[in-house]
Amino acid sequence: METSKRFEQVRERQKRLEENMARIKHKLAILSGKGGVGKTTVAVNTAVALAEEGFKVALLDLDLHGPNVPRMLGIEDAPSARDGLIVPVKYGPNMLVLSIGMIVEPEQAVAWRGPLKHSAIMQFLADTDWGDLDFMIFDLPPGTGDEAMSLMQLVKLDGIVLVTTPQRVAVDDVLRAMHFSQEMGHRVLGFVNNMAYLICPHCGKRIETFGDDSSSVLSQLLGLECLATIPLEPRLAKFLDEGKTALMYMRGTEVEKAFRELAANILSRLGGERA
Ligand SMILES: Nc1ncnc2c1ncn2[C@@H]1O[C@H](COP(=O)(O)OP(=O)(O)OP(=O)(O)O)[C@@H](O)[C@H]1O
Ligand SMILES: [Mg+2]
């Protein structure tokens, strides 16, 4: 292909990306230092909480090697295509979802290096029919590798939510993620203290998993506000494996309350007007 033609294609794609992103009011990334701390759990439940409030929400899974969003939402459909654009999968009346896990088989490892990942992310952002949205929530793999880097270069995020568990080693890593986000010019809204305590199933007493008052200790260490403190709740893990969100299947529990509080805190920090 001629070089000028290739340049033209790149320019057009960049333009499509900018046009798509301009139609989305708030772009929010969920990031952590460590793996397995609950990013996808937070991304999925925050998206559902906002969609239940009546906002138009998209959840874009950018964990290309470990796309867990479809399973956690129980989505088995694949995206379709229209006029050369990807059409994301609808989840309820207000939510769109897109994940590489909907395209490749679950057991198929995605063996991609940086440039290919960048190009896949570009395609998700530019070559997808997102329409007008209030929120786009990005679920990321742990740490600050290619996916986070590409996203933060391509999109001006309105906020980043850090997810951590309350151990000192997790804090060290989340600090790195926080500095990285700030150096890339993005605003960190605060953090989620996940698996912070558990409720004894026998006596109903609260057991702090990593010492008392971990949310305020974390808040001091990170210099950030705690947006939600989520208990360690075995039923949550089971429900997520079955594609059942905490908001719909754990009504009236501390877990549901924590996710609703998180959504409310995000809204108040971003200013939650509809598109
Ligand atoms: N508060 C919680 N109580 C019980 N289980 C939880 C809680 N939060 C997350 N889990 C479970 O812990 C596991 C890891 O959570 P999740 O996949 O959301 O983490 P992650 O940070 O996205 O992981 P990765 O870094 O691999 O993407 C999942 O099985 C999830 O169901
Ligand atoms: Mg995840």
Automatic annotation (TrEMBL):
**Matches recorded under SUPFAM superfamilies:** P-loop containing nucleoside triphosphate hydrolases (SSF52540)
Q: Which InterPro entries match?
A: Mrp/NBP35_ATP-bd, NUBPL-like, P-loop_NTPase, YlxH/NBP35
> Iron-sulfur: present as a keyword of the record?
yes
The source's superkingdom equals: Bacteria
Q: Which residues form a coiled coil?
A: 7-34
What assembly does the database describe for this protein? Homodimer.
So what does this one do? Answer: Binds and transfers iron-sulfur (Fe-S) clusters to target apoproteins. Can hydrolyze ATP.
What is the protein's name according to its record? Answer: Iron-sulfur cluster carrier protein
Which species? Pseudothermotoga hypogea DSM 11164 = NBRC 106472
